[in-house]
Amino acid sequence: MRHATFLVKLGSVQLQLTAVFEKIREGYIGFVGELPGANTQGGTLEEARLNLAEAVRLVLDAKPQGPSKTWKDRHMITATWQPPQAGASGPLDAKRVNALPNSAFAFPAARKEPMTDASHVRNAIARFDQVKDVTDADRELAFANIKKAAQHFGVEMKETDWRQLGSRPQGRGRP
C-alpha cells in the first residue's frame, strides 16, 4: 500500500487528505478514508491518482439529498451579521459607525460596509468588489452576512456566490 497526503482547496478552506493506493492484479485502487465515496481504480498508479482527484472533487461538489449533508455543506461559512437595535438605521456618521458592533458589518474583522437598513445592504452589494485589503475568506463571510441582511430587510439578491458581485478590486495581488 502507498499513502500520499495532498491538499484540496474548497473555497477558503484547505483540506489535507490522505490517499491510499493499493496494487491489485488489474492495476491500482485508491481511496480517501476521510471522504466516504472517494474511491477509484486505474490501470496505472498515475491513472488511479488522476481518477481519485476527480472522485474527491465530485464528492465535495455533491449536493445534499435529504437530511444528510456533504462535507462542504457541513462546513459552510456561518453569517455573523445580526439585525441592528432599534434606531440604528438611517444616515451613519463616523460616531454612529464607531458605536456599531462588529456584527453590524458585512466585513466584521475590517469593520467595513455597515448594514443597518435596506439602503446600506444595497450599498454593501454595490461596493463589494471595491473593498480592499481583505482575504477571500473575509469575502466569503461578508457575502454570507450580506445574504442574511438582505433577507432580513427584504432586499432581493440573485447572486449565489461572492465572485458574482462585480469585478475584483485592483491591488489584491491577483489578476
Structure summary:
This protein has 175 residues and is an alpha+beta fold. The protein is built from five helices and six strands. The longest helix is centred in the last third of the chain and has 18 residues, at 136-153.
Structure in words:
This protein has 175 residues and is α+β, with helices and mostly antiparallel strands. It has two domains: 2-68, Double Stranded RNA Binding Domain (2-Layer Sandwich), CATH 3.30.160; 94-164, no CATH class. The chain is 31% helix and 21% strand. The chain has five helices and six strands; from the N terminus they run E-E-E-E-H-H-H-E-E-H-H. The chain has helices spanning 45-61, 71-74, 94-99, 118-126, 136-153; strands spanning 2-10, 13-24, 27-32, 39-42, 105-107, 112-114. It has a four-stranded antiparallel sheet, with helices on one face. A two-stranded antiparallel sheet has the order 5-6. A hairpin with a 2-residue loop joins strand 2 (13-24) and strand 3 (27-32). It starts with a strand and ends in a 22-residue tail after the last helix. Residues 168-175 have low confidence and may be disordered.
